[in-house]
Amino acid sequence: MTGLPWLATEERQRAFLGQYWYYAMELGDGIVTPGQRFPNVALTRDLISRIDLSGTRCLDIGTMEGLVPVLLKRRGAADVVAVDGLDFSDKIACVKAAYGTDFAYLPNVMSGSLLRALEERHAGEITRHRYTGAPEPRQGFDVVVCSGVLYHVFSPFHVLASARSALRQGGLMVIETAALPLDAYMMQYNFAGTGYVLGPSDTWFPTVPLLDHFLRFLKLMPLDACWLPAGDHLVRFACVARATGHRPTLPQETLMEQATWNLEYATLLRDDFARGGDTAPVPYATASPKPVYRPGVGTCDLHATMRARPPMVPAPAQVELRLGDRA
Asked: Is the pTM for the entire model greater than 0.90?
């Protein structure tokens, strides 16, 4: 008898579990998918555990098999939309069944078509509202998670801008990526002259100060950060930032506002996409020790905070999802 009742036979179960799995996830008593157990998932989980998700509407970009949506729903999220460039519909269906949870899943969504896919889904929700009396939908999200995505795309800034467009003012964005711990404003391409730094699906590694600058340029206020060493002169770095109505600029960034006059900027940050509705700050409990704040600006200095805090040492339980997990 199969341990996964939604798979009819043990043969189908073996074939299903024999596929590639990004996440190690328990699907039944003693049945765990052969995931990669990358330690960086612990960073994302730590930041998510600090957010009050009660009643929130969340978006997970690059969801793979849906580990993050399960955690978001279990921590009180009312509505979760998960998108990915690949199609893992069969795995998502099994994960939903195993964890007794439900969330919207949009496969085959490339980074450049994220907002279009969300707009199309929103149009369908409006039609359903008009004809069936379903709750009136809103387009923006309270929380957006972008974990393990930025270093896989050819334009990290564009992806951050799309994610920020989907986030309502006062909402929170959680970002996790491979990064450079240098005190500089630059990105390193995956090919370093003598060979590739990481695998063939990887592209750009921003420095932590540049990521900080990108976030503030896109009207995001960094609040907190955590990290762990990753080898090859890289770190895995995660941060949480709040969407604001202004750009938190430093004294030396006098040209930041003028830089938005570039015609390209209006095609990146869609101020109209998530406008309207609630603007109250989504509650977040900052980690201890406190982050290093920028005097006069009030934002977390991501690089200084990383240097001031020890790296996370993930426990085995933090790199896989179990049926009883809530965070």
From this structure: yes
